[in-house]
Amino acid sequence: MNGSFSKQTPIPRWMEAIPGSDTWISAELIDKGWSADRKYRIGATGGASMLLRVSEASLAESKRAEYIRVGQAASLGIPSSRPIDFGICRADSTETNDPGSAPFVYSLLSWIEGEDAQDLLPDLPAEEAYGHGHSAGIWLRRMHGLPAPVRTEPPAVTLRRELERKRAAYEECGYRLPARQRLLSQIEARLPILDRALPSFRQGDYHPGNMIIGPDGQLNIIDFNRSGGGDPYRDFNRLETFTSRISLPFAQGQLDGYRESGPHDPDFWRRISLYCAMECMFAILWAVPFGEPEITDTLERSERIWTDFSGFEQDVPLWADKA
């Protein structure tokens, strides 16, 4: 897993509360990504490396569920991080930037060496990028075969509640898309398609920014921070918003790998276009708290999504018409 690391440092005292840490010799803070987790590359005796994720103890239930989902994906034969250990600890330290005396939850995962796929894919030959995407599509289909967590509500219920909440927030955010009324109409026209949709496992953030290409050329999946249950086709909104901008051959390969490894669903593109329309309309709500340049980037992305779907007069984006 490649990232921006601080200078290699000895194990801080607060980590000594974690079982097995007596075999650790270094901890590098990973300064990357949007997750609130604190992440470290742990070096252990014998040269082994691991990924340590640390969160507030109040998140223990959700982090335990996430840890379990990492194991579920790994059990499917998908090249990805493997679960090693999970627990809750209380730090016995007052060092700067440590959890203090408060309890914290930790997840320890296998480390994946390599380079970010989003950095390498644009320069790969089209055939090689397509092959990686094809594998990613097959793996995503496998994950979608896993059951949704217990008590996952139907996608139609989830999205209708989300739409109501986001429409209210949109009115307060201070930004307006030129075609917002047409866009809302297109969203509402698509909502009934979810009435027959069933929930399953969702990876939650499936795009090359959460993938690593190892020294052996193998593609790996590294982040399940947003995984859970819901409409599996919502995992394809990243294909439009991110993946197709990074590598069109990869995006086409992901589509083909997914569709070739399972039954055809006539609602496939209609549901994907619904989630892309939601992204087009409401992504600005995510960007506003971060300020510039995220606001400008998000508005430009919404314009591209609108154009790709011809104002959502069609369900298949222009770049995928022949995919």
Condensed summary:
The protein is α+β, with helices and mostly antiparallel strands. Helices cover 39% and strands 16% of the residues.
Keywords:
alpha+beta; 10 strands; globular; Phosphorylase Kinase, domain 1; 5-stranded antiparallel beta sheet; 323 residues; 9 helices; Aminoglycoside 3'-phosphotransferase, Chain: A, domain 2; 3-stranded antiparallel beta sheet; disordered N terminus; 2 domains
Task: Draw up the topology in text.
Blueprint: E1 24-29, E2 38-44, E3 49-56, H1 60-75, E4 83-90, E5 103-110, E6 115-116, H2 117-120, H3 126-144, H4 155-173, H5 180-190, E7 200-202, E8 211-213, E9 219-221, E10 228-230, H6 237-246, H7 248-260, H8 268-287, H9 294-308
Antiparallel strand pairs: 1-2, 2-3, 3-5, 4-5, 6-8, 7-10, 8-9
Helix pairs in contact: 3-7, 4-8, 5-8, 6-7, 8-9
